[in-house]
Structure prediction request, 314 residues.
Amino acid sequence: MRKKRWLMWILAAAMAAGMAVPAYADDDDDEDLEPVGEIVLSFSSDIEAGDEGGDVDVTLESSNCSIEEVEVTNDKGWWSGGDEPKVKVTLNADDGYYFDKGGRSAFDLSGEDVKYKSSTRKEDKEVMVLTVILGELDEGDLDIGELDWNEEYGIAQWEENYQAASYRVRLYRNDVAVGSVHTTTQTSWDFSDQIDRTGSYSFRVRAFDRGDNAGDWEESSEMDVTEEDLVRFVGTWRSNAAGWWYENPDGSYPVNDWKEVQGKWYFFGADGYMKTGWIDWNGKQYYCDPSGAMLANTTTPDGIQVGADGARIH
Prediction:
C-alpha cells in the first residue's frame, strides 16, 4: 500500500507542476496481429506504343492481404516506344494481419520485366502502397503499305498506320531527291506543283509515333511523266498576238506575280502576260531576259550586277 500511495503522490505532484508524464505505450499491439509475410505479385500488361490507354493486371499469388487498387501513370496521355509504365498497387492486410516489413525484400515480383521502385506502409501497417516500373515498350509497328500514285493529279497516297501521329514524305525524280521533306498527318500529299519536268517520279514515306520514334522509309513504284503529262500537273505556256501567259492546270493564270516554271522565274503583269526587261517589285529591281526568265548572280545586258536572288546590286 505504501508503494501505491507514493506513486500516486508523485503523479499528482507532477501534474500540479505541469510536468510532462510519459505515457507507457502498449508494446504488445503488433503481438496481437500476424505478419503478412512475403507478398508475391505477378504483372501482365497490354499497353502498346501508340495507345492512349491500356490495362495492367496484377495477380496476388500469396495470402494474408488483398489488392485494393491498381493505378497506371501516364503523364503524356499516350504511350510511345521506350516508355516505362509506372504502376502503383495499393494492398490491404487481412483482418488480424499487418505488413511486418517494407522495402524490396518484402516482395517477390514477376512479369513484364517489372522493377521495384518504392513502397510505403500506412494506417498502422495495415495498408501497403507499392510502386513499380514495367519494362520498356517496344517501338511498335510503324510500317506503311500500299504506297501508290494518283497519276491523274500527281498525288502520293499510302495506307494509314494507326500507331502513327505523323508522316514524312519526299519526292524523287530519277532516284534524285526533289525539294524538301514534307510533314503531314494525312495519308496523302499533292506533289503536282513539284512535278515540273519529264522523268520517272517516286516518293518515299515514313511514319512517326507521338514520341517521335520513326519507322523505316518505304518507297513507291515509279510514275513516268511525259511532256503531255506536264500540262495537267504544272500547266502550260499559251500565246496570242499580245504575248505569252502561263495557264495553270485549273485554267487560271498568274497576274501581277512571279511564277517558277521548270526551275526558272517569270514575271506576269496586271494583264497576265509575261514581261521582259527590268521589273520593279517590292522596292527592288529584277531583270528578265528576252525569254522572260529572271537573271540571277550575273551581269545584265546593260551592265548591271544582280545578286543570287535576282535583285539589282546598287
Observations:
- The longest helix spans residues 2-16.
